[in-house]
Amino acid sequence: MVQLFEKAAKIYPRRVAGLFRNLKWAAMIVLLGIYYGAPWLRYDRGPHVPDQAILIDLTGQRGYFFGVEIWPQEVYLLVGVLILAAVGLFFATALLGRVWCGYACPQTVWTDLFVWVERFVQGDRNARKRLDDGPWTIEKVWKKALTHLIWLVIGMVTGGAWVFYFNDAPSLIDGLLHLQLPGAVLVWVGALTLSTYFMAGFARENICKFACPYARFQSAMFDRDTLIISYAHERGEPRGKHKRGDSWEGRGHCIDCDSCVVVCPMGIDIRDGLQFDCISCGLCIDACNTVMEKIMLPRGLIHYDTERNQERRAEDLRTARLPTKGRMRWIRPRTVFYAAIIALVGSLMLGAILLRSETDLTVIHNRSPQYVRLSSGDIRNNYQLKVLNKTHFDRSYEIAVEGIAPKAVEVMAAGDVPVTAVTVPANSVGEFRVQLITDRGAAARNRVTFRLIDTSTGKVAQHASYFVQP
Ligand code: SF4
Ligand code: SF4
Known about the structure:
alpha+beta, 15 helices, 41% helix, 4-stranded antiparallel β-sheet, Immunoglobulin-like, binds iron/sulfur cluster, 19% strand
């Protein structure tokens, strides 16, 4: 048998302490706190409206984000959020490398949490390896069972938190207590429980290596000034084992202890140079700094640095000049470009939110027939009006028409019932049919503007259309 593929070795990341590990703990606590806690935040929007601060109400076709309400007609705001998220990611990557992957990506955060559970129940790297390699004893069975049980509970809580974003969280908990949850909720919780369990418990680094497209195209955002994890080759090599009291003369500072490799959640050796698998988590820096402190050498054999600084240092060494201090170039064409797009899209979105109207009017001219000649000789055009009342109060409106001088404006509600006032209940869409009747004018097609005037606030919404006659 010829094996065409090398079997993927299971990775057992070892515990490590240090600055970047602490940053990762802090990021994990904050991000998981936001994810699990946000659906419980309340925001008073007045009567008859949900008071959940962040809610995607699929039944009511509305998105709520604190004071901002997004109607289906305003889906462009969602597009703006997606553009901001994508360009924000490019911007962060151009400056700080794969900081998103290392600290904030859900795959990293949940995997980190699952590894912590594994370590808590089964012990650190060597104990976990021994347990996996050993026979199935009672100890192995209960430790494995407990680990998987906790993973499943975390998966269930994760799926549960997800559905809270689409339903009123306290009502859903009440439904859970009374065993009256909708089928769709159960399906979503089940799917997310299993996907979390599988992705963070088993797939782990393989998602970053083989499934995530971002790992593949991130290099397009890198340049020589992007922060990357670097091994100081010129200082570390030639590497080799070192005993206390041995001279450092003629050798590098790397003692080949493999600490940087065994803590790596991706299972790579950063001394081989920057690799696409590296998620820039900085744990190898913590591991190596701990070793350097123990052997009383300066920290920073592995560190965050830019390619330009590395080249400069190598040049210093070659020309035997004093080492130049590394520096960051924050302002570069690509960072300015990304920042400009973020500023532009952010300003447009802010403007759209601040100038958002309380009422929207849409007018559709009936095309079949385009006009009707009445027995009196007058011409009538029919229109469908949609009035969106985005406020939390019932509203009445007057309709005015500009562009022609109609003899009559007849408004009809559903079922063609004539109405004298255009009234739309709070948070809803009113549909009306309007007939414009006029004497024959000069032009065959006139532009008309429908104006909807809120009788309580005087605010106006308008929509352009046309009037057709023979
Ligand atoms: S932790 Fe530092 S000293 Fe140890 S192998 Fe890695 S680079 Fe070398
Ligand atoms: S090489 Fe270092 S920074 Fe990269 S993934 Fe491994 S531990 Fe994290």
